[in-house]
Design brief:
- The complex is a heterotrimer.
- By secondary structure, chain A is mainly alpha-helical.
- The radius of gyration of chain B is 22 Å and the shape is elongated.
- In chain B, strand 2 and strand 3 form a beta hairpin.
- Chain B has a domain of 98 residues: 2-Layer Sandwich (Alpha-Beta Plaits).
- The C terminus of chain B is likely disordered.
- By secondary structure, chain B is an alpha+beta fold.
- The longest helix of chain B has 13 residues.
- By secondary structure, chain C is an alpha+beta fold.
- Chain C has a single domain, classed as Cytochrome-c3 Hydrogenase, chain B.
- Chain C has a 3-stranded antiparallel beta sheet with strand order 1-2-3.
- Chain C starts with 7 loop residues before the first strand and ends with a helix.
- The chains are: A mainly alpha, B alpha+beta, C alpha+beta.
- At the B-C interface, helix 1, helix 2 and helix 3 of B face helix 2, helix 5, helix 6 and helix 7 of C.
- Chain B: This is NADH-quinone oxidoreductase subunit I.
- Chain B: Its cofactor is [4Fe-4S] cluster.
- Chain B: One of its GO terms (molecular function) is 4 iron, 4 sulfur cluster binding.
- Chain B: Keywords: 4Fe-4S, Iron, Iron-sulfur, Metal-binding, Translocase.
Chain lengths: 320, 151, 369
């Protein structure tokens, strides 16, 4: 019975996620369009609501091309490996007080551990395509994701220290107890999280692995059709997961005035993160590889460590 | 140090501003009268002087004339073709035309087709290409003797 | 134990988003560091110079539009000026003013395209659309006067094709103000941006010696401290009547080129304003110029040069007294400027390659002619 419930829940989350990704893409295109004094998609359906659906259908109908020189097995496996972990992490996310899949007491650790597997997909995709641009893109991607994994984890540690638990539900409940979202005591951690999350997601201004104007889309240059769709799906799923994670950690998850149900608050807060990412993409130029690395190692990591020290001091002295 | 944050203000400002996109098939850009669009041809004005054929840098104009039925000294146009595969819409043909028989309209979007051969437009198509432009809609054929003058 | 490493040959182009056309760069990379770069061009070669020999003098004007299609007015002008020099014609004053206004408007449009696409190369998406909005302001004005948005074919040997339509000059004055405000906004959005500065300051340095030895001209040269601008050096048309500065910078890096181009847009706006004030009624074309099929310069040769948005553009025309030129030689600034690439790229990484290549501001129609 438990198993059935779990499978059902996973299917529901998957379906919700597909819808979520569909409209996240539309949301992105609308936001960026408006910032660029354009209208964004508006041809399919009212307000362009079916634009992404049309795009996906087009991708699914395309010929499935595997380059002759590609390493076939890895090439096929890569999109799946990119998508699977970004979906798996949704198991520990708690959408509202009652709506969740697993009440895992190492939720934070699980999330961070599993999500870092996404980079395998990137590496495999870039390597197996047998394309020089893809190779460069994937190597850049892996270097970047490995480097930014560290400040990401360290920034989350502050929250873990304050709340004393790694359970994501526990963290939200703790915020409820002290009557304050962690964004206030953990503002530095929040900023570090935000920056390293962008790098983790390969989003602009840190979109080096897929730098359109340099590497011709980087690691997924050779992908087309539904495999490409899978990569895109993985990217946006991961974006949603990261913003959901941030909502849980820093913005008090489903907490909010009672006139709206918890899940609505949760999604609204996630939208803020998504908006910030799209806003960044519309504004900033791309950073350079060496600057990015230097920034990660020389600025973010020391700051994150400092944040941990300060948090620990506060925790012990103030007795939170 | 954080001057890059100002940029966010700029993009956010545009977020709320009016959009400037022209929804092309529904609304179209109104081209100024002088716009060098696709030609229009007035067969009754043509005096078969061959000036346009001579000036055309891409040699896309071909024409033939026949004798005027009443006045054997004059000629009238028989066929007039422009091959729009090669036409660069440079306007030199209308510039040399002594009688304004070939003019350019402000139309720019009625040439798309699925085959190349459809770009070969004959006298009938060119005469019926009825749009506004930098020319007189109708009027008497100007007198001879203006050959070579600017229109 | 040492690991055996190999360099990789990377073929950038002819289909690559940041080569801005059909240009190929054969780069040898060691990791991401470039050890050798070889530009391969000619994919867009149309033999313009040879074509000119079979054309009437006026017939070649539309072809000059298609060299540097972003700055067609100056190309028109410099070709016509060469023929006028052969003919020894006086140009009516109003025609000269109209020429200056359209050339400067076109220069702004060209620099705006550069600004937008360069930021696109660097990875910022929005500036491109803002730049094209402002470029459209210029193009609409040019469209009204010349009847085309890019390939103007407006300037004629001996003058210009059309007089300005009614109210056009006032409209230009108005739009100049609008443009000035919009360009100021670019500074807020991009110039101060730290990421942008980090990517451009100190990158792709060109020394004064390199500039002179390679014959580089235009904003590229002025960003390296070589103060050369044909508009001041050898004032053609009526440029000696206007008060404007030549922005120069000493650094020679990509950021300096960026600043020079932005400053040049302001200077162009200044010139346009002054020209709009000074312009008078009058003839627009030399009395013989209107007969475009009858132009027959006496035998001789002439070289004219002008400051295009990319650099010094020159036309060397030889006439043998017939109605077709004996020889036309075009000095295309993009072609000369792009040749520095093989020296400039050594030791840079691929991201810098894009930043440097974009900063040269080449147009492939002009490189390949």
């Amino acid at each position: 019975m438990d198993l059935l419930y779990m499978v059902l829940f996973a299917v529901v989350v998957l379906l919700g996620l597909l819808g979520g990704v569909t409209y996240a893409i539309l949301f992105e295109r609308k936001v960026i369009g408006w910032m660029q004094i354009r209208n964004g998609p508006n041809r399919h359906g009212p307000w362009g609501l079916f634009q992404t659906i049309a795009d996906v259908l087009k991708l699914l109908m395309k010929e499935d091309i595997i380059p002759a020189a590609a390493d076939r097995k890895i090439f096929v496996l890569a999109p799946i490996l990119a998508f699977a972990p970004s979906f798996t992490v949704f198991a520990v996310l708690s959408w509202s007080d009652t709506l969740y899949a697993a009440d895992l007491n190492i939720g934070v650790l699980y999330f961070l551990g599993v999500s870092s597997m996404t980079m395998l997909g990137v590496l495999m995709g870039g390597w197996s395509s047998n394309n020089k641009y893809s190779l460069l893109g994937s190597i850049r991607g892996v270097a970047q994701m490995v480097s930014y994994e560290i400040p990401l984890v360290l920034s989350v540690l502050g929250v873990v220290i304050l709340s004393g638990t790694m359970n994501l539900r526990g963290i939200v409940q703790y915020q409820d107890d002290i009557g304050m979202w962690f964004i206030i005591p953990q503002f530095l951690g929040f900023v570090i999280y935000l920056i390293s999350a962008i790098a983790e997601l390969n989003r602009s201004p840190f979109d080096l692995p897929e730098a359109e104007s340099e590497l011709v889309s980087g690691y997924h240059t050779e992908y087309s059709g539904f495999r490409y769709a899978f990569f895109m799906l993985a990217e946006y799923t991961y974006a949603i997961a990261i913003s959901a994670f941030a909502t849980t950690l820093f913005l008090g998850g489903w907490l909010g005035p009672a006139f709206l149900p918890g899940i609505v608050w949760f999604i609204l807060k996630m939208c803020i993160f998504m908006f910030i990412w799209f806003w960044l993409r519309a504004t900033l130029p791309r950073a350079r590889v060496d600057h990015l690395m230097q920034f990660g190692w020389k600025v973010l990591i020391p700051l994150a460590l400092l944040n941990i020290v300060i948090t620990a001091v506060i925790k012990v002295w103030m007795g939170w | 140090m954080f001057r890059l944050l100002k940029g966010f203000g700029v993009t956010l400002n545009y977020f709320r501003k009016k959009k400037i996109t022209i929804q092309y098939p529904d609304e179209k850009v109104v081209m100024p009268e002088r716009f060098r669009g696709i030609h229009r041809f007035f067969p009754d004005k043509c005096i078969v002087c061959n000036m346009c054929v001579n000036i055309c840098p891409t040699d896309v104009i071909t024409l033939t004339g026949k004798k005027h039925p009443e006045n054997p000294k004059k000629k009238i146009i028989d066929t007039y073709n422009i091959d729009f595969q090669g036409c660069i819409l440079c306007d030199l043909c209308t510039e040399v035309c002594p009688t304004d028989a070939i003019v350019m309209t402000a139309r720019y979007d009625n040439l798309s087709s699925y085959t190349r051969s459809e770009h070969f437009k004959d006298i009938e198509w060119l005469s019926n290409n009825h749009v506004y432009g930098n020319y007189e809609e109708s009027g008497p054929v100007p007198e001879m003797g203006e050959r070579g003058e600017r229109k | 134990m040492s690991i055996k490493t190999e360099t990789m040959t990377l073929n950038m182009g002819p289909q690559h988003p940041s080569t801005h056309g059909v240009f190929r760069l054969l780069v040898e990379v060691d990791g991401e560091t470039i050890t050798k770069a070889e530009p391969v061009m000619g994919y867009l070669h149309r033999g313009s110079e040879k074509l000119a020999e079979n054309f009437l003098y006026t017939q070649f004007i539309p072809y000059t539009d298609r060299l540097d299609y972003l700055n067609a007015m100056t190309n028109n002008y410099v070709y016509c000026a060469a023929i006028e020099k052969l003919l020894e014609w006086e140009i009516p004053e109003r025609a000269d003013y109209l020429r200056v206004i359209v050339m400067e408007l076109n220069r702004i449009a060209s620099h705006l395209v550069w600004w937008g696409t360069y930021l696109l190369d660097i990875g910022a998406l929005s500036p491109f659309l803002y730049a094209f909005r402002d470029r459209d302001i210029c193009l609409d004005l040019l469209n009204e006067i010349s009847g085309a948005r890019m390939t103007f074919n407006y300037i004629r040997i001996g003058g210009v094709k059309w007089d300005a339509p009614e109210g056009w000059v006032d409209k230009v004055k108005e739009k100049v103000k609008e443009l000035r405000e919009n360009i100021a906004e670019y500074d807020t959005l991009v110039t101060g941006n730290e990421i942008f500065q980090a990517r451009t300051i100190g990158v792709g340095k060109l020394t004064k010696e390199q500039v002179i030895n390679w014959g580089i001209s235009g904003p590229l040269a002025r960003a390296s401290g070589v103060n050369i601008d044909i508009r001041k050096e050898e004032p053609y048309s009526i440029y000696d009547r206007f008060d404007f500065n030549i922005p120069t910078r000493e650094e020679g890096d990509v950021f300096a080129r960026y600043k020079v181009r932005i400053a040049e847009m302001y200077e162009s706006l200044k010139i346009i304003e002054q020209a709009c004030e000074q312009i008078d009624e009058g003839e627009i074309i030399h009395k013989k110029g209107a007969r475009i099929m009858m132009i027959k310069p006496p035998a001789g040769e002439a070289y004219t040069r002008a400051e295009a948005s990319k650099g010094e553009i020159g036309v060397y025309a030889v006439s043998n007294g017939k109605n077709k030129p004996y020889r036309i030689k075009l000095r295309r600034p993009s072609f000369v400027n792009v040749s520095i690439l093989q020296d400039l790229l050594i030791g840079e990484n691929i991201q810098n390659l894009v930043a440097i290549f974009g900063s040269l501001d080449i147009v492939l129609g002009e490189v390949d002619a």
